[in-house]
Write a structure and sequence with these properties.
By secondary structure, the protein is mainly alpha-helical. The protein is built from nine helices and no strands. The chain has two domains: 86 residues, Rna Polymerase Sigma Factor, Chain: A, CATH 1.10.1740; 66 residues, Winged helix-like DNA-binding domain superfamily/Winged helix DNA-binding domain (Arc Repressor Mutant, subunit A, Orthogonal Bundle).
Length: 177
């Protein structure tokens, strides 16, 4: 007798990916670009690329690593783009009181001193901090996502931690004067 198990359609597989990774990717992208509305646009672009390229995904890495790599590349592309360098940050524009629970949580997190200092880091340091501590990826996964060696990831993490420590120490000193 033939095995009559139904294989999931590409659409069903994509819907499962969206349910599993949608919020995580949105948060990660928001952390990189520092703007919720822009992050939603970039996240949409990420999942359009995932959908288009899902049939070509070979499974050589975990699907999460593949999706995170697409997200990081989209963020890098935006941060290098002409429009980013030549426009006012969208975060300075009033968003007409968009008050979702996620928005409130993100606003509270942005007020946290450590988060503010991480956001001030250069992109290469911010990426490894976000992927390691926020997305909870291991060094080898971060290396695959960013397309660099594990040694490079370790160096960037070390330097990012040093920079954060310097900045936080300097701010503590300023607070007492």
């Amino acid at each position: 007798m033939e095995d009559n198990k139904l294989q999931p359609t590409a659409e069903a597989e994509f819907e499962q990916i969206m349910r599993t990774y949608g919020t995580r990717i949105l948060r990660l992208v928001t952390f990189f670009v520092k703007d919720r509305v822009l992050a939603e646009d970039i996240t949409q672009d990420v999942f359009v690329k995932v959908y288009r390229n899902l049939p070509q995904f070979r499974g050589e890495s975990h699907i999460q690593t593949w999706i995170y790599r697409i997200a990081v590349n989209e963020c890098k592309g935006y941060l290098r783009s002409w429009s980013f360098r030549n426009m006012f940050p969208r975060s300075q524009v009033d968003t007409d009181g968009f008050d979702s629970v996620e928005q409130v949580v993100l606003e509270h997190a942005e007020r946290d001193q450590l988060v503010q200092e991480v956001l001030k880091l250069p992109t290469t340091y911010r990426q490894v901090i976000a992927l390691h501590y926020y997305a909870d990826l291991r060094i080898e996964e971060i290396a695959r996502v960013l397309g660099v060696t594990e040694g490079t990831v370790r160096t960037r993490l070390h330097r990012a931690r040093q920079k954060l420590k310097q900045n936080l120490t300097a701010q503590e000193g300023l607070g007492w004067t």
